[in-house]
Amino acid sequence: MADLILTGASRGIGHALAKALAKSTEDRLILVARDRARLDALVLSIQQDGGQALAVPGDLSSLAAARDLGRRLVAVVRPESTLVHNAGVWPSRRELTPDGLERAFVVNHAAPWVMQQALLDAGRLRRILLVSAGLLVKGRFDAARTPMGEDFSSIRTYCDTKLGFALAMRDVATEHPELDVLVMHPGVVRTDLGARTGPVGWLLSLVKRGWESPEVCAERLVRVLSRGRWSPPGQASWSMEETEHPWPAVTEDVATRRAVREVHARLFPGT
After folding, report:
1. Could you read off the pLDDT of 174-202 as tens digits, one per residue?
2. What whole-number distance in Å separates Cα of residue 155 and Cα of residue 122?
3. CB burial class (10 A; 0-12, 13-18, 19+) of residue 130?
């Protein structure tokens, strides 16, 4: 029996997905989030319903914390496991982490890549699902500016960082043909992602009322996770909700793919 690692498990899509998976899979759920109290409550609820779950509190807001999380996951995760990258942020202002990097770039791209690398090096993974965003088509990843947020925008930075990690996952699939890799737009979902204060926040909350619930999205993700295979060896697939599509044109741009690789070579030499 393998494990399923789920980041961002304490809220929104992650919380709903953990509850749905507990009813549909025999895999042990390894649940990751910053909020220890919410995570423990979720694990207890799953166990009371007869499921298997383990809380691994972890923070993806710095590279050091991501490395520590990766080491702790390696210590408990079994081989042939599935990793679901679900944690993410939509920033409203530019913030730098202790690494000197823009916060959304770290949380949405660099930190999950660092955490994942530990699991890959240890041979723990068979499948990786990245819960991404259709808005990556609006991204423009700049190797010199995006990591530090020098091109920060309260809308575009979310798109840029989602694009960057999606491209990084395509390279991971190429480098690890033993993996099954899917990058997926999960749907337009009513969560706290991108929440704002003031009139803009009020207007956004009204708009979100028409979006689907995390529970509806979670059922979709359960169906996707139940499939036997997502992608050909050495490739990552791109899906809009449950339907596979050709990769968007922006993800085929040679200069953009080179920019992501330049950043990885600079930040993660030797990997």
Report:
1. 999 999 999 999 987 655 555 545 544 43
2. 36
3. buried
- β-bridge partners, 53: 29
Q: Which residues contact residue 49 at a Cβ distance below 8 angstroms, ignoring those fewer than 6 apart?
A: 22, 23
Number of domains observed in the structure of the chain: 1
Question: In Å, how far are 2, 6, 44, 266 from 39, measured between CA atoms?
Answer: 21, 11, 9, 34
In single-letter form, the type of residue at position 85 comes to H
Give the pLDDT of residue 190: 56
- Where does residue 51 rank: exposed (0-12), middle (13-18), buried (19+ CB within 10 A)? buried
Low-confidence ranges of the chain (pLDDT < 50): 196, 199-208
**Amino acid occupying residue 232:** P
| 223 in Cβ contact with 166 (< 8 Å) | no
Domain span at 55:
3-267
Burial of 170-190, coded b for 16+ CB within 10 Å and e otherwise, reads bebbeeeeebbbbbbbbbebb
This model's pTM is above 0.85: yes
Domain with residue 201: its CATH number is 3.40.50.720
